[in-house]
Amino acid sequence: MNDVFLPDIACLEKVRDETPDTKTFTLRFRDHENGNQFHFLPGQFLELSVFGCGEAPFCIASSPTRPGALETTVRRTGQLTDQLHKLGNGDEVGIRGPFGNGFDVQAARGKDMLFVAGGIGLPPLRSLIWNVLDERDRFGKVTILYGARTPADLVYKDELEAWGKRSDVELLVTVDVAEAYWTGNVGVVPILFQKVTLHPESTLAYVCGPPIMIRFVVRDLLTRGFKEESVISTLERMMQCGIGKCNHCAIGHRYVCRDGPVFNYHQIAELVE
Amino acid sequence: MVFTLPREGTTQWLAKLLEAGEVVAPVRGPCGDVIFSTLRSPAQVVWDFENPLHPPKQFVLPQTDPLVKIKLNGQRHEVEPLHDDAPRTLFNVRSCDVAGIAFLTRMHEAEPADASYLRRVQNLTIISLACNTPCPPGFCTCTDSGPFLSGGYDLQLTDLGGSFLVEVGSEKGEAAMAKAPDLFRKADENEVTQRKALEAAAKTHFGPETCHFGSAMRRISTGRVQDELWEKMADWCLECGGCNFVCPTCYCFNVKDLRQNGTWIRCRTWDSCQYAAFTLEASGHNPRAQRKERMKRRFFHKVSAQYYSRDNMVGCVGCGRCIKTCLGTTHMPAVVAAIRKGKWHE
Lengths: 273, 346
Prior knowledge:
By secondary structure, chain A is an alpha/beta fold. Chain A contains seven helices and 15 strands. Chain A folds into two domains: 8-99, Elongation Factor Tu (Ef-tu), domain 3; 105-234, Rossmann fold, CATH 3.40.50.80. The longest helix of chain A has 13 residues, at 122-134. By secondary structure, chain B is an alpha+beta fold. Chain B folds into two domains: 2-66 and 84-203, no CATH class; 213-252 and 274-341, no CATH class. In chain B, 33% of the residues lie in helices and 21% in strands. Chain B has an eight-stranded mixed β-sheet, sandwiched between helices. In chain B, helix 6 packs across helix 12 (332-341) and helix 9 (291-303) crosses helix 10 (305-311). The radius of gyration of chain B is 22 Å and the shape is globular. The N and C termini of chain B lie far apart (51 Å). Chains A and B meet through strand 4 and strand 13 of A and strand 4, strand 5, helix 3, strand 11 and strand 12 of B.
């Protein structure tokens, strides 16, 4: 019997500002043995402790193809994230996990990959994106469509630039509200569909973002001929335990923490509150 | 094996059990009501009582359950798991509450098994007292969890008047008897017959509450309960969470860090699925913002076939505590009846 609530200790190795309210934290296990035993899939998540404040679930934003340190990107939006944002290099946090099912990377081999993200929805997909790019020859066409409220709200600005330069990646970025210096696309994420050529029969679409964005993007994808099974998203719910016990994330008899957080749209349509 | 314990022997037996560890039993509280509490002396135990409003759940799943101790040594955090391995006996608990603990144990055993809970239960001996007279709001015949049990206990006592019939359900039960072996003798056929008669008689003395889960389960599991009905019932719910806290099978929890003597204790604390903040996310998004949605969730978890096939029982042991505590009448039998009839009582 394991002590399922006992966290491992990790140290913050680097804290990077992404947007005015979002930071990326690089974590390394204090006990390297724990780090070596930590294997995860893109799409899985951590229960991250800020000691004295409690713990909360965050997706792993780094790729399993780059083992060693873990990255997670967090927006400051509540008590725990507020405290987390006050921590800096060398500070300690707790880690439990990895939890959840994650993306089925094996099954995606040979497919065209379409990533559609809104705002803070890019971090969970980033883990898969880097996994795909690190094994680039195993996948077909890679298209990334990303939107945020304003240019300042775009996360991973350096990486967006790098992906944009790659010839084996098609990246389109849009913002809802432009600022004077912005020369790119303006409008919500679905407008980007008009600018790319999609092959629904050979493509898996990964969608993550605010609920309203997901709704419109999924509707668009289905009308464009995507099968429900080929539209994959990762759900977000209030969670406490991460192991299917506390019931906060239950939808019907399914648990987002254990049966998800990754579901295809066919499965999502069958979930009943 | 079935034994007999003379009534006057109970004091001596309880004294022996108290020597071996904590004994929790129904006692009369300071205001005269009966509550489950840690026993100080055998004389405190009450033998003829209506089941306390709070089940003995708190002794296996405390309202604030310490899980991990977090200490800061200079800049270094040290974490250690907290275990409650104290030997404990639940004495004179009713059949429904034994079934409630069995439900909680099955849920905590499910992968990944929860050591914090299971260690407590491994050191727990359950000595139940069968209900010769069912309590007024009880409907345990509908949930197959009383008035007498056929398993789940370590020992089951039946009050035969001058003596108690003692049914052994496990090795832990045998060990509890072995604390005072001279007090017990093998039961004779007459006493066993008397117990059977008492069980048959008890079944005829139930109050008016019934709970026909079958058709309600069919409707709940297939989403065939009208939204308007949930809405109507939710109008009567006061969102107090009382039904959850007095329910022997409710276990939803939060995880919180509490400050204690210069350290942090990470605790599991009871929560209620009827509270609006139960599903509220930090972003402000709340997938169950409406009361009717939360009520639907509660009864889906308790009554649906999906959960029934996972837990092998409905999430109800027929104790009737939600009837006693609910000011809005949205308790289990009323809601199940409304779902079955497609109509709220008003």
